[in-house]
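Figure 2 data, in text form.
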Amino acid sequence: MEQILKELQAMMPTSHEVAVRNSKVLAQEVVGTINIPYPFYVKKAKGSRVTDVDGNDFIDLTMGFGPILLGHNPDVVVNAIKETADLGSHFGLTNPFQGELAELVVEAAPCGQKVVFCNSGTEATMYAIRAARALTGKNKIGVFVGSYHGAHDYVTVTADKKSDPNRPELKSMGRGVPKETTDQVFMLPYRHETAFDLIREHKDELALVMIEPVQSSNPRLDQGPFLQKLSAVCKENDVLFMMDEIITGVRLGGFHGAQEFFDVPCDMATYGKAIGGGMPIGAITASANIMEVFNFHGEGTTIFSGGTFNGNPMTSRVGTAVMKYIKAHPEIYPYLTEQSERLASQVNTFLKEEDYPANLMNAQSMFHLIFTKEPIESAWQVSRKTWQTEVLFYNHLHKNGVIVPGIHLFFVSAAHTPDDIDQVIEAFKKSFGEVRAKGAI
C-alpha cells in the first residue's frame, strides 16, 4: 500500500495539496460513504473523461453517481445552461419552464399524472413518505435490506446482521437519529417471500412500501417476478407501493425506466439524477388524486412541501433539453446495453479464468464490483473483511487511468466509446494482476 500511495502522490501532487488545505475547513467533501483511495480533485470533465488539477486525464465511471447519462458536458446541456443564464438562474417565483419538464416526466413515468419537483433524491423520498402518511393515516414505512433512499432520518437505516435474515431488524446508519424515528420503519428481506408475510401482518400500520427496482448495491435484472408480486401484495392490503426510480429512471431499459422494463405497476415513483442532466433535481409523481395532497391551499388532507430552488429555471431548462434529447434518441439504450454487457462479460470471464475472488455485477449500465466469487442474492451477504484488498485494488485502478468511487457503484454513459470500454477492461485486468503480485490476493 505504501508504494502505490507514493506513486499516486507523485502523479497528483496538487490534489494532495488541495486535500490538506480543504481538511482545515471542510468537515466532509461530497458524501461520507465515498472513500476514494487517494485524494484527487477534478478540474474539468468532457464526454467520458475527467481531468484533475494536475492535468491528468482519467476515464470516469462515476458519471456523477448516475445523472450523467449522456456523458460530461454534452452540447445539449451546455447550450441550455448558456441560454438560461441570459434569462436568470433563479427567481424564487414561479416560472414557465418547469411545466414542460413535468410533462416529460409524466410521459416517462407509467404511474404519473402530476409532478412535484425538489432538489435531490433525498427530498423526493422524504416528501413521498410524508404524502403517503397523510393519505393513509398510517405512520410506518417498509424498506428493503440493501436499498438506498437518501439521507433523511427515516431512510438512514441498515439491517442488523445479527438478526434473522428472513425477519431482519434494523439499526441507524449513524448517530443523531432518534429511536422514535426508526421505530416507524420496517426492514423487509429482499427477494424473499417473508417480505409479503410481513406486509400482510402489518398492513394496518404500513402507509408505504418503497423499493429500488434495481438496488445500487446489488444490480441485477432477475427480480421482475418479485417486484410484480410485491406490487400485488401491497394493493391487496391497502398499502401504497412506491418505486424509487431515482437511479433507474430514464436509464434502465429505455425512456420509461424500470416500471416498464419489469412491467410493475406502482402508486408513486420518485425520480432524480438523469432527468436533471447534471443539475440538482428530485421529483415525486403519481396519479392526480394522490398528488392532490401537495395542494397546500386546497381542502382535506394536505402536506407542506417547499424549497427555495424547487423547479428553478436552470434545472428545469437543462432537464427539459436532456429529456427531449433522450426521448428523440432511443438508440442510446441498445448502445449502453451492448457496451455494458461487453464490459461485464469480459471482466467476469477474466476473473473466473484467473481465479480471482471478485465478481462484477451489473444491470445494464449500472455496475457494482463485489469481492466474492459468486453474485450475491442480497447486500446482507456483503462482507467488509476484504476492505484492505479492495482499497489496494482501487488505488491501482486509479493509477491505471480509471476512476471508480469508493462505494464501488459505477456507470457507463452514452459517451463511453468502444475504445474506452476496451481500456477499462484492460485496466481492471492489470490492476487485479498488480494486486495479486503484491500478495494481497
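Caption note: The mean pLDDT is 93.
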